[in-house]
Amino acid sequence: MKRRKTEPYVRLTQPLVRDSGVLRPATWEEALDRAAAGIRRTLETKGPEAFGMFSCARATNEMNFVAQKFTRAVIGTNNVDSCNRTCHAPSVAGLARVFDSGGGTSSYQEIEDSDVIVIWGGNPREAHPIFFHHVLKAVHKGAKLFVVDPRRTSTGSWAHRQLQLEVGTDIPLAHAIAREIIHSGLANTKFIERATEGFAEFAASVEPWTLEVAEKTTGVPAELIKELAHAYARADRGQMSWTLGITEHHNGTDNVLSLINLALLAGQVGRYGAGLNPLRGQNNVQGGGDMGAIPDRMPGFQDVLDPGVRAKFDTAWGSSIPPFKGLNLTQMLDAMERGDLTCVYIIGENPVQSEADCEHTIKRLSNVDHLVVQDIFLTKTAQLADVVLPASAAWCESDGTFTNSERRVQRVRKALEPPEGARDDIELLSELARRLGHDWHYTGGEEVWDELRSLSPMHAGMSYSRLEELGGIQWPCYSEDTLEPTFLHGRLWAEDPAERGRPAPFTVLEHSPPVDLLTEEFPIRLTTGRRLDSYNTGVQSGGFPSPMRQGETLDLCPEDARALGVAPDELVRISSRRGAIVAPVRLDTGLKPGLAFMTFHFPDEVDVNIITIEATCPIAGTAEYKASAIRVDKLPADAVV
Question: Which of 68, 298, 448, 559 is most solvent-facing, going by the fewest CB within 10 Å?
C-alpha cells in the first residue's frame, strides 16, 4: 500500500495576527501588542478566571516555571496545565494521594538490579526505548519480566510471561493478584502493620476476586495470575511500571491506585530496587508538573491550598495567588464551551489533534474570544489562533534543564540559534509580562533556575554547576552538600514512628468497565498507542523519513479480518458514536479477536481522535483513549476517499 503523502510542517519565523478571519504576517511589536491587548481586555471584562494557560511538556523546566509564574503572578489565576493531563495525570494523582509525592519512586539503575519487573499497560520497547534498555539489562541478568497488556507486543517478546487481559479489566486483575498474595500468606505483614493503613478494608474488598472469577472477567488464565502474584510477592526487589494503558481510562486514577495497593501489600516500595514507576512519554512532562505547570501545585509540588506556600510565593513575586485550585486542561475545555473561559494562551501544545473527540475540541477553541499560540510550527491548533508567536525549539535552541521519568534533572544546552524571526519562549513571556505591568527581565535559564531553587526545597541543592558535574541529579535534593537516596519513601521502613510519618493508605476500589459499550452496532474494542518510528501527533517526527514508518493503519487480528471480509492494505471505514475515518487494514497476530489498534501519529492523514471517546477520569481529567467502541465496514468499490 502506498502511504498518502503529507507536506512536512515548515518552521515559523514570522508572527501572525488574525484580521477579517485570516492570519497575516505581522511585526513582533504588533503581534505582542495584540496578544497583550486581548489578555488585558479579558482581565478587565471577565476577570482572571476567564484566562487559561496550556504549558509545554517538551520545553525546559525554566520555561514551564516562567509560564506558571506568568499565569499566577501576572494574570492572577491557577488555570495552568499541560499534556500531563492527557497521559499521566492519574499517575501523579494516585502517587500523591498515597505518598504525598507524584514522581516515580526508583532510579533506572534499580530497574537493572531488580528480580521481578512488571510492565503493566505499556509497550516500552517502542514507546520508551531508553527505559527498556535498562529492563533488558535486568532480564539478561536473570530478572523475570511480566508484561500485562491487551496486545502481544514487542515488549512482550522479551517477557517471562505475558498476561493478555481484556481492555478495562485492570482492577479485577490487580484485585485477584492481591487476593492470591493474601491467601497464600505472602503479604508483607510487618510492612503493612508498620507503614500502611486500611488493610482490613482492602483485604475484604478483594475477597470476591478469586482466580476463577478473575479469569472469566479479564481473560487471563488463572495459573498466570497466580504465577505473577507469587513471583512479585516473593521477589526481593520487585518493580511495577506502567504507562498509558493504565492511565488513559475513565477510571485511570483508580487503575493506578490498584497497582499501588499491590506494592504496599508486598512491601515493594521504599527500598532499593523495589518501586512504582510511571513511564513518562515526553521529554519533560515530569518537569512541567514539578515546575508547577499544573492547577493544584506550586513549583516543587507544593500544595496551592496551603496558606504558607502561597505566602512564600506571594512575597517573592509580589503576587496574590488565589486560594483555590485552578482548572485542569479538561475543565478548561469545558469552561470554553460554557463561555466562562474566553482567553487561552497555548505554548507548544496541539490539543486540536491530541485531545479525544477532537472535533469537539475544535469547536471549544473556536469559541474563545482571544487565542494566543506560541510554537515552532503552524500546527492545526495555531491555525485557529488570533495571534501566533514563533518560538525557539527547547531541545536545541535553549539553555535549561529537563526532568526525566526517574526524576533526574539534567542540563540541556543551546546548540543552535533560533532561525531569524523566532524568539526564545522565556523572552516572549517576559515581553508580554512587561506589557501587562510586570517588569520582568531574565538574562538566561540559570537565573530562572536559581529563582526556582530559592522557592522549591526539593530542588535547592541543584545548581547548574552541580548538575553538570554529576551528570544530573534526582529530586529531592535539599542541599548542595548532600544527595538523597535514589529511591523515594524509605521513611516507610523506619523503626521510629515519627520518622515513618503518615502511613501509606490502601484504597478500596471497584471495577468500572469502559464507558463506550460494545453493541451489535459497535462490536469491536479499539485501543490506541504509539509506534517506535513516530512521535505524538507527528508535527515534528512526520517531517523526517523513516524506513520503519508505515503510516496509519487499522490493526486487526487475522480472524476478525476474515470475518469482516477485508484484506491487508484494503481501505475500510472505522466508525464510532462520535464520527468516522478511513484507514487501510494491517494484520497483527498479537491482537485477540474483537480488539483493534491504532495510533495518533498521523492525524493529517487519518485523524484517529475523531472517533476516540472523551469520557474522563473524575479525579485526574484524563480521557479514555484506550477503550472506544467501533465498527468496521468495507468501502464500496467506487468510494472516493
Answer: 559
- Whether the CB-CB separation of 217 and 172 falls below 8 Å is answered with yes
Q: pLDDT value at position 3?
A: 46
Q: Supply the angle between the helices 329-338 and 358-365 in degrees, to the nearest 10.
A: 60
Element holding 343 (H helix, E strand): strand 343-347
Q: How far is residue 75's CA from residue 68's CA, in Å, rounded to a whole number? A: 10
Question: Three-state SS across 532-571?
Answer: CCCCCCCCCHHHCCCCCCCCCCEEECHHHHHHHCCCCCCE
Euclidean distance between the first and the last CA atom of the chain, given in angstroms as a whole number = 15
Residues in the chain: 641
Q: How far is CA 458 from CA 112, 428, 449, 480, in A?
A: 26, 28, 13, 11
Cα-based distances in Å from 197 to 10, 488, 495? 55, 19, 16
For residue 76, which amino acid is it? G
Residue 264 near residue 196, CB atoms below 8 Å? yes
- Per-residue pLDDT of 443-495, as tens digits, reads 999 999 999 999 999 999 999 999 999 999 999 999 999 999 999 999 999 99
Q: What is the DSSP letter of 11?
A: B
Sign of CA dihedral 256, 259, 265, 271: negative
The residues, ordered by sequence, that sit 6+ positions from 322 with a Cβ below 8 Å of its Cβ are 48, 76, 77, 78
Residue 84: pLDDT over 80: no
Vertex 605: Cα angle to 603 and 609 (nearest 5): 30
Distance, C-alpha 25 to centroid of its chain: 34
397, 419 in Cβ contact below 8 A? no
Dig out the grid coordinates for 61 from the structure.
523546566
Give how far Cα 579 sits from Cα of 477, 554, 573, Å.
Answer: 49, 15, 10
In the chain, % helix, strand, coil (3-state, to 5) comes to 40, 20, 45
DSSP reduced 3-state for 628: strand
Residues 6+ apart with CB under 8 A from 228: 118, 146, 148, 161, 163, 177
Question: In 46-142, which residue ranges form alpha helices assigned H by DSSP?
Answer: 61-69, 89-99, 108-112, 124-127, 129-140
Distance CA 431, CA 350 (A): 23
Q: Tell the burial category of 420 from Cβ atoms under 10 Å away from its Cβ (0-12, 13-18, 19+).
A: exposed
How many angstroms separate the CA atoms of 484 and 203, rounded?
Answer: 34
Alpha helix locations (H) across 158-251?
170-183, 189-195, 199-206, 211-218, 222-234, 244-247
Instruction: Encode burial over 353-390: b for 16+ CB neighbours within 10 A, e otherwise.
Output: bbbbbbebbbebbeebbbbbbbbbbbbbbbebbbbbbb
Residues 154-191: pLDDT tens digits?
Answer: 999 999 999 999 999 999 999 999 999 999 999 999 99
The amino acid at residue 58 is R
Q: Which three cell numbers stand for residue 181?
A: 498474595
Q: What CA–CA distance (Å, rounded) separates 277 from 200? A: 26
d(CA 347, CA 365): 14
Is residue 400 helix, strand or coil? strand
What's the pLDDT score for residue 641?
63
Nearest-angstrom CA–CA distance, 365 and 348: 15
